[in-house]
Amino acid sequence: MNVLKHEMVPEHSIMSGEDVELLFSTYRISTEDLPRIYHDDPAMLAIGAKINDVIKIVRKSLTAGRAESYRLVVKRPKK
Fold first, then answer.
1. Residues 6+ apart with CB under 8 A from 31
2. pTM over the 0.85 mark
């Protein structure tokens, strides 16, 4: 089963280097400012994301129409 096909899972995509640079310059942020998502998250596995990739997540929003958020892919710490 592809988790990205589920109606409750928003659109996930890996951002290009150019898009990441534009994001960082527009919002004056860096990778340290981004929320994290683990490399073994089912959506990350489905899109082939690698550690240090920046992911764009697009959700449907009742007020804005669509809401974009961004995550940095990190390795899950070992227990």
1. 52, 54, 72
2. yes
